[in-house]
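thought: fold this chain, then report.
action: predict
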Amino acid sequence: MNDMFMSRAMRFFIAITVSNIWIGLYLTGFSALHWFAYVTPIFLTFATFTGICPGYIISKILFKNNKENE
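observation:
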C-alpha cells in the first residue's frame, strides 16, 4: 500500500492543475455548472492534501504491470 502514495512533485503538479480547474469554475460561475463538473476537482483536491489518489489506485488495479515493464 505504500506505493499508492504520491511524491511531493506529483502532489505539487496536481495542486497546480486543480487550482486552474477551480479558477475556471469560479470564472464560469458556480451556479451555472452541472454538479458533475465538481467531481474531478474534488478528487484532485483530496489527492493533493492526502497524497492518496483514488484514480491512480484504480488504474493500478485495472492495469497491472509486469515487473519487466516498469
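thought: worth noting. The chain has one domain: 2-69.
final: C-alpha cells above.
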